[in-house]
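ARCHIVE CARD
SHELF: 3
SLOT: left
DATA:
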Amino acid sequence: MAVGVLSLQGSFNEHMAALRRLGVTGVEVRKPAQLESVDALIIPGGESTTMAKLAHYHNFFPSLREFMSSGKPVWGTCAGLIFLANEATGQKQGGQELIGGLNCTVHRNFFGTQIESFETELTVPKLAEQEGGPDRCRGVFIRAPAILKAGPDVEVLADYTIPLDKLRSVASDAEAQEAIVDSDGKVIVAVRQGNILGTAFHPELTSDVRWHSYFLKMRMQRGETNRQCLALSDPNLGYPLGTRPDLPIFEHR
């Protein structure tokens, strides 16, 4: 199973490392033609405006939309989630082009600037049900977006509760604050819609590979069962004995 990782900018190396730990071939996708050789695609976190400009320069958007319409799994993390949304708010002047397809409204930089990045525990019962392990995971939010609205065809996999007394220091503008109040202080941070997976946080920056395994199994659920993608609980699996990943990861103890 060849999994593409859009490698224009952002944390594509970290996703490649997570795939290696699962014994899966990762392909750095830098040209539209390379999408023809992969079975699934990860759009990593990064700077969404920069990624959009690079994607436009390389004429990626038509090929990305065609890839999504084929039904092959696509996963967007952080900036990648913004790319996949049908609508994005809180953008820079002039906005940016989106791939679309995910029936959500995403607020760019919802949680504030780079220095307001944070880590927290998220409750993920559906992930645990399929992949095993605890029903909580570590969420790494770096200048992160959030999903303000999700359509009826979108399955919510994780949300984050913001104390109302901290609302003004967390949400970045009046529109975002109003959306939180209307949803009892919760914002959505992980969703699935058919072949599309979206997370506002960065699973690739932790030692927990269950999100990557969950994504790989989405391909099998399309009826293509000629490969097996198993959830791995040991972070050393997939590496020679005594070695560890060559990229920094966060481990919560």
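SLOT: right
DATA:
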Amino acid sequence: MTAAMKASPSLTNAMGIASIPLDELKKKYTDERSQFIEINGLNIHYRVEGDGEPVVLVHGIVSSLQTWDDWATELRKSYKVISLDVPGYGLTGGPENEDDFNEEFLINTFAKFIDVLELDRINLAGNSLGGYISAQYASQYPNRVKKLILLDPVAYPQKTPWVMDFATLPGIKQMGKLVAPPLLVTANVEDTYGDPDRIQEQHMARYVHMSQRPGAKTAYIKTFEMLKARSTQEVPMPFHSITAPTLLMWGGRDAWVPVELSQRWQEDIAHALLKVYPTAGHMPMEEIPEITVKDAMAFLNGDSIETTDYAAFANSKAADHLN
């Protein structure tokens, strides 16, 4: 309750009724690195920092490019780092016609973004929904991705989070396009962390503020519907065509996309390495940035990292549960 109230600029915002004007959000969440580019009718917000081989960072559901800030600070010392607000989120926003907002639109817009920035061969890292977009891109354009890092990516059938189930209920989803109480947002953020005590105040405030961008409520509900539908569909994935060396990074306490699903990814990407962070949740790059970016840098640089044997991890997890 305290976090939700602190992040709300007014009582109507605290009730989840009001929006925060886009100009106000731009003043708060852009800086000298921020750029905007028109693609598929959207004014995409992105940042470019550093020099070297390009590393593109793709955030997940209900997030924004700032989730990568700690990673970008380290990566830009050796790489050219490009992060973007995925369509529907951050300062980018969604298409005018909400019916156009679907998987194909997200993947197509991302592919055009890479083309317009004239990035020929990239390193790519994606979290959650951003992991799905990244994996789809790497499978469709295998010659354009040098190395791939997927952090707690979505894709396969699974039990969905409570907020997604609630938000997509008949009647609730219509209301959710009009009202999004910050208290629900803060509870959701706490659910995505392995240890809620690690949540920094500026991150929590950002999640609340971005949820009140004009049009955000509709984009959030549309994404929940998209992922809810995917969670029940057992369809062949194209990820076997990914040729880039791949690292799966996973929070061992991920309540949104269980670590067990890493095995589905390793079945489809046979060469993929796995690193589990036992105490982290759904966004390890934000929750434990120092540890995860160190592993990411080592992987990108071609150095060895200590990987996780999933069977051994599962056995130790079961033993801890019994004790």
